[in-house]
Amino acid sequence: MSVGKILLAVFGFFVVLAIVVGLWVMSIFNGLVSLQQGTDAAWAQVQNVYQRRADLIPNLVNTVSGAANFEKSTLTEVTAARASVGRVQLPAAGAPTDPQKLAEFEQAQAQLGGALSRLLVVAERYPTLTATAGFRDLQAQLEGTENRISVERGRFNEAVQAYDTAIKRFPAVIFAGMFGHSARPYFSASAGSDKPPAVQFDFGKKTDAPKSP
Question: Whole-angstrom Cα distance, residue 162 to residue 32?
């Protein structure tokens, strides 16, 4: 075999090797992109259900504020908590990458959920209010929304787990940093987080509304 043919064979070998390696790296890149897009899609669903809850709150506040002697401090707490959620700065697109920012968002949402739950508990003292169709409809919508929040948070954590695991596995771990991929934070699991806030009412309960002073 001539030297020219040997050089051509060696060159061909490296070309094929480069193509194989390129396809291999491309496969890793595409896999990480798909998992990253999965976390972004799951995050979008989380935002949708949280926004749904936020959109229901003004109607709830307007409904209960019409009840005579309803505790104004409770309404103020809900309104303030809703506003605090809007002040949390998150990325305009995609899931959060900063654990501290996600923790701030989660804390603000937890405060809003707690304030909302307290408002609904106070509402139980007003049987005339809880008997109205408008209030019952809002209660049902909020209950469904809280369930969806729990579900979508779980799905988001699953998507993040798959993504974070992939970027730490060999051989993806070699290229993850080069491709701009880094671990993303989870929603933390707090006590009772597996259950949505209780928003059920005993509409048959015979309780007199507080009398005017």
Answer: 10
Q: How far apart are CA 197 and CA 147, in angstroms?
A: 9
Handedness of CA 147, 152, 155, 156 (dihedral sign): negative
Distances (CA, A) of 157 to 76, 148, 211: 32, 14, 48
pTM: 0.79
Instruction: Encode pLDDT of 29-77 as tens digits.
Output: 999 999 999 999 999 999 999 999 999 999 998 888 877 678 888 889 9
184 in Cβ contact with 166 (< 8 Å)? no
Our CA angle for 201, 210, 125, nearest 5°, is 5
- Asked if 156 contacts 45 with a C-beta cutoff of 8 angstroms, the reply is yes
**With 0-12 CB in 10 A as exposed, 13-18 as middle and 19+ as buried, what is 126?**
buried
